[in-house]
Design brief:
Blueprint (H helix, E strand, L loop, with lengths): L5 H9 L30
């Protein structure tokens, strides 16, 4: 386990239930809509 950097520690210290400091993201890519993309029903 590594020690947190000063910046990471400050974000952790400043986070409260009323001011969350974390973020997240999710991306879903559909290859069938891309030029030359693969289609799940295609066999090759």
């Amino acid at each position: 386990m590594k020690q947190l950097t000063g910046l990471d520690a400050s974000f952790l210290y400043l986070e409260t239930p009323n001011a969350p400091m974390h973020i997240s993201g999710l991306s879903i890519y559909d290859q069938s809509t891309a030029p030359g993309g693969k289609c799940a029903s295609r066999t090759s």
